[in-house]
Amino acid sequence: MKAGFRQRDPAGAPHIEDELKGPLKELVDEKAEVIRGWARAGKIAKCDPYHLIFSIWSTTQHYADFDVQVRAVLGQDMSGEGRFDDAARFLEQVFMDGLKIRS
Description:
The protein is an all-alpha fold. The chain is about 65% helix and about 0% strand. It has helices at about 15-40, 50-65, 65-75, 80-100. The mean pLDDT is about 85.
């Protein structure tokens, strides 16, 4: 495993494996095909749609899972809902700039 990546096996995962491998996988496959279509149409740069989806999930989930740490690091001035607006703007910029077609 590459440095910086950690394997996690959530305790409940074995109990919901059918859901993960069935409806969730079908939904993600469907969304991945939409992303592939955007790339084929020249709307976004070619990318691995699954890793794009995982990246969006993980970065947005971070703000929910680590809210206490985020507030502590950002400081009192950013303890309100504005931190989510700032995060949304930042992540939109990162993903949209990263998916721009380069000549």
